[in-house]
Write a structure and sequence with these properties.
This protein has 291 residues and is α/β, with parallel strands linked by helices. The chain folds into 2 domains: 5-79, Orthogonal Bundle (Arc Repressor Mutant, subunit A); 117-277, 3-Layer(aba) Sandwich (Rossmann fold), CATH 3.40.50. The protein contains 15 helices and 5 strands. The protein has helices at 8-14, 21-32, 34-38, 42-49, 53-62, 68-79, 96-117, 120-131, 143-155, 168-176, 194-205, 219-222, 241-244, 246-261, 267-279; strands spanning 135-140, 161-164, 183-187, 209-214, 227-230. Helix 4 (42-49) packs across helix 5, helix 8 (120-131) crosses helix 14 and helix 10 packs parallel to helix 11.
Length: 291
């Protein structure tokens, strides 16, 4: 089975935390010069790195390929794809139009790259978990907490019971009350945030179905996940990779929310109640509060 040609380098990057030391050296060689690596034979690559041919073969298998030839064919296509090499070059001398163009293009690329990596089976499973859950709890730390909060606000519009807390201790308390009929959505950009790994372990022990959203599916967090959805972003000179990953994470949550809302009953009733409540915070045409 071959991976999407335009997703090979992305796959290597997002899988880096699961590689062995030798696989890390292979990944570094490829990512540092994908054009050159795409022209190398398995023997040339193994000789340069001082590893066995079988190690290169296992690396390709790790990424979902049947063998090195399939991997190299896709790498060759990926290495010469102009979209893959898009990179922001912003300086203080650029005008606001140039800055806006670069920022928007970066966000668009992150979304496109994230979409390429999605597997239909994983998305379907995540939706089914949500549809069969009594409660949905959202968890994250730092920047991922902001994504969790936005996700919580979205799912408040659904008939599902939703849970969220900004404080980590409160998140632990809420997590301890979840059970097999519930779902936890755990968001961690690096996949290594110890608080989220610990929380995921707690809910897993309680039989809670867990959906993980991360840019790096580490073995630590992945061990507790029923479904892993991978977001993609690139670090730039003016913002960190974790900050730019938020738009991709939000898009993944939007996808789940939209799919769920098409399948759950009583959606119109729930939305009507919420809109009627929110309407009281608005002013009418005369500037008076809506009754």
């Amino acid at each position: 089975m071959s991976t999407s040609p335009t997703a090979v380098l992305l796959k290597i990057k997002t899988s880096s935390s699961t590689f062995t030391r030798k696989e890390q050296s292979i990944a570094q060689l490829i990512l540092s010069d994908p054009v050159r690596a795409s022209r190398m034979t398995i023997s040339e690559m193994s000789d340069e790195l001082g590893v066995a041919d079988s190690t290169i073969f296992k690396f390709a298998k790790h990424l979902g390929y049947q063998g090195f030839r399939d991997f190299r064919d896709d790498l060759l296509a990926d290495a010469f794809d102009p979209q893959v090499s898009v990179h922001e070059n912003i300086s203080e001398r650029d005008d606001i139009s140039s800055v806006a163009q670069a920022v928007f293009q970066s966000s668009i690329k992150s979304l496109e790259d994230t979409l390429r990596l999605q597997q239909r089976d994983a998305l379907d499973k995540a939706v089914q978990i949500l549809l069969s859950s009594k409660r949905v709890s959202f968890h994250g730390c730092g920047g991922s907490n902001a994504v969790a909060y936005d996700s919580y606000q979205k799912f408040l519009r659904s008939p599902l019971q939703t849970v969220f807390a900004q404080d980590y201790h409160l998140q632990l308390m809420q997590a301890s009350l979840l059970g097999p009929e519930d779902c936890a959505i755990v968001i961690s950009h690096t996949g290594l945030t110890k608080e989220m790994v610990r929380l995921a372990g707690i809910v897993k022990k309680a039989g809670v179905r867990t959906i993980v959203i991360t840019s790096y599916p580490s073995e630590h967090l992945q061990a507790y996940a029923d479904v892993v959805l991978v977001s993609v972003s690139d670090e730039t000179g003016y913002r960190s990779e974790s900050l730019s990953s938020r738009i991709s994470q939000l898009a993944l949550v939007d996808t789940l929310y939209t799919a769920v809302m098409f399948h759950v009953p009583n959606v119109s009733e729930t939305l009507h109640k919420m809109r009627r409540a929110i309407a009281t915070t608005k002013l009418d045409d005369t500037g008076r509060p809506v009754a």
